[in-house]
Design brief:
D-Maltodextrin-Binding Protein, domain 2, 5-stranded mixed beta sheet, alpha/beta, 2 domains, Arc Repressor Mutant, subunit A
Length: about 325
């Protein structure tokens, strides 16, 4: 039984006149009459009583009419709402800043929330890409733990939603005196110079590193622009240390015999907070696909106790 046939039957039941129903359906009277007869033959019982001068519904026809009207109403409602959802659900553009991060596993997979990855190079900051409309969401460091950067985000309409933490590591050339130590403590890092990959990230990542290690640790920072992370397989770090939360970078540096990598300070794993970063306006719009995407991501985040990230807060 086709939906179109049910619509035709409902129209006949409305007029109880084949000719009038055919006119409203833009069909010929013989064609509509033939279709009603075919429907009755398909079901195996009469729906219309044609024994009088005027057509009437049989008891079976009355029952079918009730269900047919509900089926048509549900079909039309489903079509309207799904079309509306399609208009409101364009593909959400997610930046692949750190695709090796385990947090990408909590991104929604079902078709109702389509998303695509957009590659950002090392010289493009996520907040700039968000403001330019190049992306809708980024999974990156939660810079809002730094008061100045949180205020900056508020001022330009960028919001951070914490989803967890990723491991950090410190790397240095094997000739660096610190490389000979079995373990690092915070006071070892006093006076050290930290390499930041890109000038675009210099201010933000330097503030993040300072916050993670504690404001009482005196650090210097310098830029060592890399065209690609793969350059870490041979770049000379000099007397500086390299601090990063990217797993791919860590793996490249661990493969080098002339580099020593630490992932603990003061006997504790060094981690940095990770967040979904998006435009504040998108989160304030209940019908925004970005809002629904972020809400679904947050729903998938395991409920764990929040950790403090600054080593100075964790103890020495």
């Amino acid at each position: 039984m086709r939906l179109e046939t049910l619509r035709e039957f409902v129209m006949v039941a409305k007029h109880l006149n084949i000719t009038k129903a055919a006119q409203e359906l833009y069909l010929s009277q013989p064609s509509l009459s033939s279709r009603m007869s075919a429907l009755e033959k398909e079901l195996g019982y009469p729906l219309l009583d044609r024994s009088r001068n005027r057509i009437a519904l049989t008891s079976a026809g009355a029952v079918l009419l009730d269900y047919a009207q509900r089926i048509i109403e549900l079909h039309d409602e489903a079509l309207e709402k799904s079309q509306r959802a399609a208009r409101l659900s364009p593909t959400v553009k997610v930046a692949t800043i750190a695709p090796s991060s385990p947090h990408y596993r909590m991104l929604p997979e079902h078709e109702s929330m389509p998303f695509s990855f957009v590659d950002l190079d090392l010289n493009t900051a996520a907040i700039d890409a968000l403001r330019q409309g190049l992306i809708d969401v980024a999974v990156e460091s939660d810079y809002s733990i730094v008061d100045a950067l949180r205020e900056e985000g508020d001022a330009i309409g960028i919001t951070y939603r914490r989803i967890g933490e990723d491991a950090c590591f410190l790397a240095m050339m094997a000739g660096n005196p610190l490389a000979r130590k079995e373990r690092l403590v915070r006071r070892d890092l006093n006076g050290q110079t930290v390499i930041i990959n890109s000038g675009f990230h210099f201010d933000r990542w330097s503030k993040m590193v300072q916050s993670l290690l504690g404001e009482d640790v005196k650090l210097g920072f310098r830029i060592n622009a890399l065209d690609s992370i793969s350059n870490l397989s041979f770049v000379d770090l000099g007397s500086s240390i390299y601090i990063c939360g990217d797993k791919a970078s860590q793996e490249l540096l661990r493969q080098r015999e002339d580099v020593r990598v630490f992932d603990e300070v003061d006997g504790r794993k060094l981690t940095h907070p990770v967040a979904l970063v998006c435009r504040t306006g998108d989160l304030q719009d209940d019908e925004s696909p970005v809002r629904r995407f972020v809400d679904e991501c947050l729903r998938r985040v395991p409920a764990t106790e929040p950790r403090r990230h600054a080593l100075s807060e964790q103890g020495r």
